[in-house]
């Protein structure tokens, strides 16, 4: 893909090492402001304020005027599975816990070349959807996780990258546990200085690890300044297995072991009791709220609005469903309205701004990067979006923040920047051939799905339709 998507003067301005950008609207932590400018230099935000003052402080720079645009923080996907994204359509119509029948056998069949290809494609999808950072919960693919890290860096996507440390439960042997701990320590050291890759440790679900490993991984992350990721209280079957095997619900087990804390990010948390909400609040444990996953394959919806009121940290996650940040925010609000708001007469369900906050700076806090990203602020990494709001849908807006949640669309993304570098223009990279990658991965994906021992319970839409039509014809 070449730079022909950009007109030459604008391309030069948006690819410079130093940029003084003057959009119609600038989205700061406290909301949208007009007549402001931002200085981007060396991949960071260096100065922000009223345009006249910024221009006076930097007279050597010519402001880049961006009429009809919102300059806003890049959005954060707080829960992803990059090596599963290519098989997302396998999840349609499936009952919960499809990881046992689909994801585990599918990922186990992937080699390093395919992991690199599908991860880079997933990274492109994320960038196209307005995500500048994803939090990957770990892959079960064989081989070196460096293939996944290389893919995200090549695409220009910031990634919190989880290394899975499952030891199999309390029946695991000491040698296995020692080996996993050594590998985890090496992984955290190896990636500690990378700009776009932030190391993390993961255990798929608490039942997949011994008590010793759960405690060790959580402690290692606390010591190293990383986050410990695990799927907790997502499905009824998993909760019940934990009660049978360990005598406690998954979240209760982690609390009992002392494995919760500000270094922990639990995925989903859809089935949480009042006392478990208190555990999250008291330990400052974070949550990824994944509303599209609840719509597609979940047992419940996490009480995210209540979590916000209680001060529980959480971000919004896709769970490798669809990488569209605007649709994710809309789903976050809609799921709260349908699951909780209708019953209580809550017509607001967050008022729009709640979901923007948790897609940006609150999401950054949830994944352990609040000091680095998530807002347009001096000293933060310049991960940001240029959103076209000069559209028929938004030109008459009287509440632009809420309209971005309900009406925003990834087609409005003119530009996506990560660490101050232009990564996409009008949905496509400017410095590598995305369509060639698409063709390559499409060929490889069909082979991978065909050879993996996947057990899919629901037919494709076409097969389902044919079955329904056949039954109606008999009747």
Q: Could you walk me through the main structural features you see in this protein, from its secondary elements to its overall organization?
A:
- This protein is α/β, with parallel strands linked by helices.
- The chain folds into two domains: 3-72 and 382-429, Urease, subunit C, domain 1 (Roll), CATH 2.30.40; 75-366, Metal-dependent hydrolases (TIM Barrel).
- It contains 18 helices and 17 strands.
- The chain has helices at 8-14, 51-57, 99-108, 112-128, 146-155, 174-190, 211-224, 236-246, 250-257, 274-283, 291-297, 304-310, 325-344, 353-359, 361-366, 400-406, 434-451, 461-474, and strands spanning 18-28, 31-34, 36-41, 44-50, 64-73, 75-80, 131-136, 158-164, 197-203, 228-232, 264-268, 286-289, 314-316, 384-388, 413-418, 421-425, 428-429.
- Strands 1, 2, 3, 4, 5, 14, 15, 16 and 17 form a nine-stranded mixed beta sheet that branches.
- Helix 4 packs parallel to helix 5 and helix 4 packs across helix 17 (434-451).
- The longest helix has 20 residues, at 325-344.
- It starts with 7 loop residues before the first helix and ends with a helix.
- Residues 70-422 form the Amidohydrolase-related domain.
- InterPro entries: Amidohydro-rel, Metal-dep_hydrolase_composite, Metal_Hydrolase, MTA/SAH_deaminase.
- It comes from Variovorax robiniae.
- Keywords: Hydrolase.
């Amino acid at each position: 893909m070449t730079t022909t998507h950009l007109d030459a003067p604008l391309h030069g301005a948006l690819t410079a090492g130093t940029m003084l950008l003057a959009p119609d609207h600038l989205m700061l932590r406290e909301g949208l402001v007009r007549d402001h400018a931002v200085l981007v230099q060396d991949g960071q935000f260096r100065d922000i304020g009223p345009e006249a003052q910024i221009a006076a402080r930097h007279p050597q720079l010519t402001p880049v005027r961006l009429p009809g645009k919102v300059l806003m923080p890049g959005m954060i996907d707080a829960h992803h599975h990059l090596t599963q994204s290519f098989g997302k359509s396998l999840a349609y119509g499936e009952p919960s816990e499809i990881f046992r029948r689909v994801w585990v056998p599918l990922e186990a069949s992937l080699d390093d070349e395919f992991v690199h290809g599908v991860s880079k494609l997933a990274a492109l999808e994320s960038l196209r959807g307005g995500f500048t950072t994803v939090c990957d919960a770990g892959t079960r693919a064989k081989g070196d996780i460096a293939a996944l890290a290389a893919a995200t860096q090549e695409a220009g996507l910031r990634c919190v990258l989880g290394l899975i440390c499952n030891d199999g439960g309390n029946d695991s042997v000491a040698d296995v546990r020692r080996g996993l701990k050594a590998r985890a320590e090496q992984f955290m050291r190896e990636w500690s200085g990378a700009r776009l890759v932030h190391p993390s440790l993961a255990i798929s679900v608490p039942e997949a690890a011994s008590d010793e490993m759960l405690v060790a991984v959580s402690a290692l992350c606390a010591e190293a300044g990383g986050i410990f990721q695990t799927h907790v209280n997502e499905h009824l079957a998993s909760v019940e297995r934990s009660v049978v095997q360990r005598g406690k619900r998954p979240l209760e087990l982690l609390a009992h072991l002392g494995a919760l804390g500000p270094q922990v990010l639990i995925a989903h948390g859809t089935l949480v009791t009042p006392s478990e909400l208190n555990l999250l609040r008291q330990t400052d444990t974070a949550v990824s709220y994944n509303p599209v996953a609840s719509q597609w394959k979940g047992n419940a919806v996490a009480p995210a609005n209540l979590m916000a009121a209680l001060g529980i940290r959480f971000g919004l996650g896709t769970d490798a469903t669809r990488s569209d940040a605007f649709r994710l925010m809309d789903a976050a609000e809609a799921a709260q309205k349908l699951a909780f708001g209708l019953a209580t007469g809550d017509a607001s369900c967050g008022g729009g701004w709640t979901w923007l906050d948790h897609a940006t700076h609150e999401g950054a806090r949830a994944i352990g990067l609040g000091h680095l990203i998530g807002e347009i602020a001096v000293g933060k990494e310049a991960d940001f979006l240029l959103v076209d709001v000069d559209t028929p849908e938004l030109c008459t807006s009287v509440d632009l923040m809420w309209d971005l949640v309900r009406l925003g669309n990834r087609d409005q993304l003119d530009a996506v920047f990560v660490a101050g570098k232009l990564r996409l223009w009008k949905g496509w990279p400017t410095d590598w051939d995305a369509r060639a990658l698409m063709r390559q991965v499409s060929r490889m994906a069909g082979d991978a799905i065909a050879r993996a021992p996947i057990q899919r319970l629901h037919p494709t839409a076409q097969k389902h339709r044919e079955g329904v039509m056949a039954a109606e014809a008999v009747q």
